[in-house]
Amino acid sequence: MTSTLLSTAWRYTKAMPGFIFGTEAELMGKTLRHSYAGEKGLNNGLGFKKFGTQVKDAFEKGVTHHEYMVDKKGGFFKNLWHSTKSTFSDMPTYWKAGGKVADKMGKTGIAKFWKQMVGVGKLLGKRMPLLGAALVLLTELPNIAKTTWNDGLLAGGVETAKTGVRLGCGAVGGAIGTALIPVPLLGSMVGYAVGDIVGRFIVGKSYTEKQEEQKLAQNQTNTQNPFDASQFGGTPISDEEFQKMQMMYMQAANPGNPYSATPQMQQGTGFSAVG
User: What angle do CA 19, 22, 24 make, to 5 degrees?
Assistant: First the structure.
């Protein structure tokens, strides 16, 4: 049982690059959309009935497609490069296709422009996993580099794995969003954002976020008691000792002023400025 779960988990892990950077998330979204909403014009969709099974089956189709592309079509990265290049070269084609649809519907001006934008949106929706992954990587690479530099390769590898989990969750979330929200690009963006939130919840805060929180907490401690030696590895001092040290500092700064200490300090230390 355990070996079966491990082999399944490893199989899905190997397929994640296809979901993150390739077109497997697009295929998953199409498959899920077909089972959820049914064929166009026919009321034969399952809706949320057995939705978990629908998601599982659609995900499995994406995994199978990834394995086929790796085994039969010259490898994943070769197809990734083609997919990346085609994103920009295909934009004019989708723009023209949207214009033709508008012409058939007799739309002009803003209405036609909107149809053309919808056409480009469909293309970008298909490439949302790749675009989303690129944005996440741009923000996470400095964190990974900083972790590796400060704490070594193992810690950097952990941060890389955490980023991979976020990317995978985002890609799968984008596929589900595409199926549930039939608006080009919008469904992918919403789904990807929700998936990324789930990924963040799973892996926790990044190394950089933890460092910033520790720094903020240290700054707050320093502001509350600048004479606290514990922040430098010394023994913590009491409030009474802190007041005495502060009074001595103020007297040293104003040696000719017997009233330099505040009434609160005078009371706490037994010092009186009244003759």
Answer: 50
Q: How far apart are CA 36 and CA 44, in angstroms?
A: 9
Nearest to 20 by CA among 174, 145, 241: 174
Consecutive 10-residue averages of pLDDT for the chain (275 residues): 83 84 83 85 77 92 86 64 67 78 79 76 64 71 86 88 88 89 82 91 87 81 57 59 74 63 49 45
Q: Give the separation between CA 84 and CA 209, rounded to whole angstroms.
A: 31
Contact by Cβ (8 Å): 126, 135: no
**Number of neighbours of residue 24 by Cβ within 10 angstroms:** 27
Q: 203-230 in b/e burial notation, b at 16+ Cβ within 10 A?
A: beebbbeeeeeeeeeeeeeeeeeeeeee
State the DSSP H helix or E strand holding residue 263, giving kind and residue range, or none if neither: helix 263-269
Q: How far apart are CA 129 and CA 121, in angstroms?
A: 14
pLDDT for res 110: 81
Phi, psi of 238 (to 5 degrees): -80, 170
What is the rounded CA–CA span in Å between residue 54 and residue 268? 72
- Distance CA(259)–CA(2), nearest Å, equals 77
Buried/exposed 98-112: b ≥16 CB within 10 Å, e otherwise: bbeebeeeeeeeeeb
What's the CA gap between 128 and 112, in Å, rounded? 24
Q: In 10 A of CB 1, how many CB atoms?
A: 5
SS (H, E, C) 146-190: HHHHHHCHHHHHHHHHHHHHHHHHHHHHHHHHHHHCCCCCHHHHH
Tokens found for residue 219? 């700054």
